């Protein structure tokens, strides 16, 4: 296995900067996820590491080797694509064996490796079938097998679960994590799905517009987002954001959102004052950190229900704050009709405050 490091990686397509001086290191045996919306540069970064694109600047190291000028076949990486790219005229056995035959390995060695990988992936009974005879999940396992059979130092995966139905995606997330842990292969995984990233990754690099917005463990991204973009991208439903002006009196801070006057507890006030707060901030609170009740709550506010979304195990309640919707996540059932008055209270110890101008986190 090997570590992967990219330094100041840069790639431009015409006038579009796809990867903008990106730097990070993936430790030996680590499962790193590149997460972000479509067009953020995550797949291009993966293709640069694989050697399928040529960087316009920066350096790529696999182990201690600078690999910028090495062709893909000499980088000792294996890549699994979104569409699996299986050969339709070959049986599963031959699809998995193909990269070994290209390397002219002995027939006995090829057979041993193919059967070992098939056992690991639990597809031994599929070896005599063609891709068209397989389900989406089975095809994906074959694609994984073809990559694993090479025994690469680094495993690269580009949205490998996106073509699967929701139930199978959840199952395969656990399977992929099990495989990676069992084999200890350094893995870089690209996805736009934050649930995939949060459940699978050792660390996550959140990308936007070709840059890394924050690189951290899942827990830290959720609880200590570095900026508004990361805070809004991690979590479902997304964090609520309310523009607010800052009022300071006698060492205490009050945020005025135009609808709510939010008096911060002294602990948060002290942190905010120490940071030298701007006059305009963004107050962030996750839906699960807002209490809701049909009776008044201490330090709470009366609001009007806009719509409820019952999901069985929980209920999402929307109310209006000016022209925007604010979401509350309530565990279990909560019956309310549009227009009904209810009470909410913010769990302020879980709140986030961002600089409105820069978008960076203050608290």
UniProtKB/TrEMBL annotation:
Keywords: ATP-binding, Cell membrane, Membrane, Nucleotide-binding, Translocase, Transport
CDD domains found in the cross-reference section: ABC_MalK_N
Keyword DNA repair: no
GO CC annotation, single: ATP-binding cassette (ABC) transporter complex, substrate-binding subunit-containing
Pfam families, alphabetized: ABC_tran (PF00005), OB_MalK (PF17912)
GO biological process terms on file: carbohydrate transport
Molecular function in Gene Ontology: ABC-type transporter activity; ATP binding; ATP hydrolysis activity
Cross-referenced NCBIfam families: PRK11650.1
Protein name: ABC transporter ATP-binding protein
Organism of this sequence: Thermofilum pendens
């Amino acid at each position: 296995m090997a570590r992967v490091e990219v330094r100041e990686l840069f790639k431009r397509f015409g006038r579009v900067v796809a990867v903008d001086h990106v730097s990070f290191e993936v430790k030996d045996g680590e499962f790193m996820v590149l997460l972000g919306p479509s067009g953020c540069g995550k797949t291009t970064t993966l293709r640069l590491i694989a050697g399928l694109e040529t960087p316009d600047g920066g350096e790529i190291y696999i182990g201690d080797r600078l690999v910028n000028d090495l062709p893909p076949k000499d980088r000792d990486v294996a890549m699994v694509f979104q569409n699996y790219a299986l050969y339709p005229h070959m049986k599963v056995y031959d699809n998995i064996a193909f990269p070994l035959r290209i390397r002219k390995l002995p027939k006995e060695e090829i057979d041993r490796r193919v059967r070992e990988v098939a056992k690991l992936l639990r597809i031994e009974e599929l070896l005599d079938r063609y891709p068209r005879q397989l389900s989406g999940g089975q095809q994906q396992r074959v694609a994984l097998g073809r990559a694993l059979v090479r025994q690469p130092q680094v495993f690269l995966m580009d949205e490998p679960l996106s073509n699967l139905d929701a139930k199978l995606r959840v199952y395969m997330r656990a399977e992929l994590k099990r495989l990676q842990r069992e084999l200890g292969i350094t893995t870089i995984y690209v996805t736009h799905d934050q649930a995939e990233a949060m459940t699978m990754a050792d660390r996550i690099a959140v990308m936007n517009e070709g840059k890394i917005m924050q690189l951290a463990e899942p827990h830290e991204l959720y609880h200590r987002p570095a900026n508004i973009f990361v805070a809004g991208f991690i979590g479902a439903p997304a964090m609520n954001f309310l523009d607010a002006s800052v009022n300071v009196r006698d060492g205490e801070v009050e945020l005025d959102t135009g609808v709510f006057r939010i008096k911060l507890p002294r602990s948060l006030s002290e942190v905010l004052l120490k940071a030298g707060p701007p006059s305009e901030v963004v107050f962030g609170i996750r839906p699960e950190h807002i209490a809701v009740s049909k009776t008044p709550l201490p330090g709470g506010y009366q609001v009007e229900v806009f719509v409820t979304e019952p999901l069985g195990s929980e209920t999402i309640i929307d109310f209006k704050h000016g022209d925007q919707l604010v979401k509350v996540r309530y565990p279990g059932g909560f019956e309310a009709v549009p227009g009904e008055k209810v009470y909410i209270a913010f769990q302020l110890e879980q709140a986030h405050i961002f600089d409105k101008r820069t978008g960076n986190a203050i608290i």
